[in-house]
C-alpha cells in the first residue's frame, strides 16, 4: 500500500474514489486510518477520499516531532505532493485540531471542514494528575483498552474494537507529546477571520470534550454549524458512521454544492 515521504517522515495513506470533490480523513490521538473504516469505502462511491496515518501511527513510521503544528505541516505537504487542493478536511478529536491548523496555515487548500468531537479551538490541557495515567496507558494494553472504551462507549466490543486497541498501542509513544501539544494551541484569534464552511459534530456523551468547548469552537469560526448527536460519545465516526455520512453529505450539498 502507498507511502509518501514528507518532512522526513514516511507516511502511509490510502486513496479511493473518483469524485469531483476530495475528502481528507484525519484521525485522533492514539488513532490510525482504521478509525475511518466504516466510512471510507461508502464515501468513495461519491467523492475522492484520502485517509492517512499520522507519523508514528498505524502503518506510518515513527519520526519524532509529534505535535499539532508538525502533523498539520505533514498533511499540508501530503496534499501538495498528491496534487490535491480545495479539499474537505474531516478531523476526529485531535484530527480536528490538525484540520483547523491546516485551514489557518493554507486556506487555499481547504474548501470545507467537518470537525468530529474535535479538540476545541482554545486547546485543551491535561491536568498533571492525569499524566501518570497516560504513561500507564501506553505500557499496558488492558489499561489502553479501558481508556478507548470510554472513547467509543457505544461500540467498545468485537474484533474491530480490538484492532483499534492494537493500533493505539502502536501509536502509544506519541500520546504524551500529543497531549502536551493540544494544551499549547489556541486557534481562536486566527479563526476569527476564517471563511471556510465548517460543520461541527458533537456526540453529547463525550467524557473528554465538553459541549461548552464545542459551543466556543462554533463561536470562534464565523461560517460554522454545531450539530449534536444525542446518545453518542466521543467517536461518531465509529459509533454512528451512517448518520455522520448523511450529515456530511447534506452539509457539503448546502455549502459547496456537491
UniProtKB/TrEMBL annotation:
Keywords: Hydrolase. The keyword Hydrolase applies. GO terms for molecular function: aminopeptidase activity. Gene3D superfamilies: alpha/beta hydrolase (3.40.50.1820). One of its GO terms (biological process) is proteolysis. It holds the Pfam family Abhydrolase_1. Residues 22-129 form the AB hydrolase-1 domain. One of its GO terms (cellular component) is membrane. The keyword Hydrolase applies. Belongs to the peptidase S33 family. This is Pimeloyl-ACP methyl ester carboxylesterase.
